[in-house]
Write a structure and sequence with these properties.
By secondary structure, the protein is α+β, with helices and mostly antiparallel strands. It has one domain. It has helices spanning 3-19, 65-76, and strands at residues 24-28, 34-38, 43-47, 51-54, 57-61.
């Protein structure tokens, strides 16, 4: 995954967590996986190919970002209101 695309995925994950009001941080490990550390103590590992792991166990495998975000919401914010995330470019100017 290119560094630009990797940065964008990290921003999407962080933005979704803020929208769902989940206190968590997102970081990338040296192997290219994203780690989502929730204040609740839960850590999810997202491996390239959209595989989601918790405690070394595979939770889900997805074909794209939409399914991945659905799994994250179910795991980290099951009571968050359902709705649509609109992912797109935003001008910083």
């Amino acid at each position: 995954m290119s560094s630009h695309r990797t940065a964008r995925v990290g921003r999407v994950l962080s933005g979704a967590l803020r929208l769902w009001e989940v206190s968590a941080s997102v970081e990338q490990d040296p192997e290219g996986a994203f780690l989502v550390h929730a204040a609740s103590g839960t850590t999810l590992r997202i491996v390239p190919g959209w595989l989601v792991f918790r405690d070394g166990h595979l939770l889900a495998s997805h074909a794209g970002l939409a399914g991945l975000l659905r799994t994250l919401r179910q795991e980290l914010a099951p009571d968050a209101p359902r709705g649509r995330l609109i992912i797109g470019s935003q001008s910083l100017a």
